[in-house]
Amino acid sequence: MLTIHRPSLGVRRTVGGPVEPGCAVLVATPHVVAAGPYEELLSADHARLSRAEGDDPAGVAGRTPEIRVRAWEGVLEPGRHEPDGPALLERAYWPDPREADELGAEPLTGEAFAALPMTATRLRQSARRGVQRLLARGTVMMEGPFTDPAIATIVQRSGMGVTRLGDRAAELLPRLLEVAPVRNADFVVRAADGSCLATVLAGRLVFRRR
Q1: 74, 82, 187, 194: which has the fewest C-beta neighbours closer than 10 Å?
Q2: In this predicted structure, what is the pLDDT of residue 36?
Q3: Is the pLDDT of residue 15 over 60?
Q4: 158-180, pLDDT tens digit by residue?
């Protein structure tokens, strides 16, 4: 199935770039197929575009595939890259909501983390919660590597990309995060106040604010 993401405030294709009003994004999972005016995407030759991506969502070449439209009240733009992935998932504790009265809602680091009785199971449960919180912030990639194979697997299964950019982050990230055809459909939708409404990874909606 093809999906057109139609944000009410337009699309920002590059990090820090201009917002294009009336623009939308066409996705054939897992890739962005096209970006442009909504009306043009709606009337495009979707079967041809899908086959160009190596996909035939209709099951028969030449048949017009089904199109789903997701309307968003915000701006569609590149997701964020988290530079401190191992620190946030391997050296921080994300409290369970049931622990909020005792530990609060924010991740515990440093001395507060060291003071907690910690097991491998508890840390990995924390990492799962941390991944969900990061997705809710619009994170689509994070810097690695991870020393705990189980936590590395948790991140991989979430769909987030893991980078090892080091000092080249400023140079490489704008291209990696760009919302553009043939690239993975990794992006976020943000409200006018900048808060995250939705996060999409490889065309899958992995977070949606309720």
Answers
A1: 194
A2: 95
A3: yes
A4: 999 999 999 999 999 999 999 99
pLDDT > 70? residue 45: no
Q: Residue 109's closest CA among 97, 121, 126, 125?
A: 126
**Interior/surface letters 143-180, b for 16+ CB within 10 angstroms, e for the rest:** bbebeeeebbebbeebbbbebebeeeeeeebeebbbbe
Backbone angles phi, psi at 187, to 5 degrees: -165, 175
**Token pair for 97:** 């909501």
> CA distances (Å), 91 to each of 78, 114, 159, in order?
27, 9, 21
Compute the distance between CA of residue 153 and CA of residue 110 in angstroms, rounded to an integer.
24
Dihedral (CA of 83, 85, 91, 95) sign: positive
Q: Residue 68 and residue 27: Cα distance in Å, rounded?
A: 10
pLDDT one-digit tens code per residue, 112-131: 999 999 999 999 999 999 99
Work out the number of other CB atoms within 10 angstroms of the CB of residue 81.
21
Residues 6+ apart with CB under 8 A from 105: 95, 97
Q: Which of residues 57 and 12 earns the better pLDDT score?
A: 12
- 74 and 7 in contact (C-beta within 8 Å)? yes
**Helix axes 120-135 and 149-158, enclosed angle (nearest 10):** 30
